[in-house]
Design brief:
- The chain has a single domain, classed as 3-Layer(aba) Sandwich (Rossmann fold).
- Helices cover 39% and strands 23% of the residues.
- The N and C termini lie close together (8 Å).
- The relative contact order is 0.23.
- Bound molecules: guanosine-5'-monophosphate.
- Guanosine-5'-monophosphate binds next to β5, β6 and α4.
Length: 189
């Protein structure tokens, strides 16, 4: 079966990473995580090259000019983008490529990867905005102003969830992880 692009999207704080960690890298899925480039500062514990490629605004803008992104977007005052060569090379090698990106980027990918057989999309949805705010506050990685901006963005992202092939409402991480495994088992068979 031809390799696929796995597009996963969901508001900040929806629990995306907790859901996919330790699942997507299972050998049976033959999938590789696409490390994005960002101008956001690294959080404690994040590693350059593992979590993101942390770059300056100037470096990011140079990469845009050189058309090195499959998609890129501005998210809460920072740039985020998917390096094109990595994705294309791995798909050519018949590896499935996993992208975890925000909605603007996801919409660009859906438009450009119009051959639906080569991709599928999953939206991780928080059970409610109240719950989402609680999670973002508990994380202590952003201040109130940034949390407010992320909540506003989340409302817009949730309004687009119907555009996705699958929606997982993340009430219970265990159940959500099971749902993700079922989707991957079906799509990557
Ligand atoms: P965070 O700053 O919390 O790591 O990420 C903020 C948002 O940017 C998340 O929704 C994350 O999925 C998204 N994101 C991460 N990498 C990319 C990327 O390469 N492109 C786009 N468009 N969004 C990304």
């Amino acid at each position: 079966m031809a390799a696929k692009l796995i597009l996963l999207c969901g508001p900040s704080g929806s629990g995306k990473k907790t859901i996919w960690s330790g699942i997507i890298n299972r050998p049976k899925y033959n999938a590789i995580f696409s490390v994005s480039m960002t101008t956001r500062k690294a959080r404690k514990g994040e590693k350059h090259g593992d979590d993101y490629f942390f770059v300056t605004k100037k470096q990011f803008e140079t990469a845009i000019k050189k058309k090195q992104f499959l998609e890129h977007a501005t998210y809460i005052d920072n740039y985020y983008g998917t390096p094109k060569a990595f994705v294309i090379d791995n798909l050519k090698k018949n590896k499935n490529v996993f992208l975890e990106i925000e909605m603007n980027g996801a919409l660009q990918i859906m438009k450009n990867f119009s051959n639906k057989k080569k991709m599928f999309s999953i939206f991780i949805c928080p059970p409610s905005i109240t719950e989402l705010r609680k999670r973002l506050m508990k994380r202590h990685t952003e201040n109130k102003e940034v949390i407010d901006k992320r909540i506003k963005q989340a409302k817009w992202e949730i309004s687009k969830k119907k555009m996705f092939d699958y929606v997982i409402i993340n009430k219970d991480v265990k159940v959500s992880r099971k749902q993700l495994r079922e989707i991957l088992d079906k799509e990557l068979d």
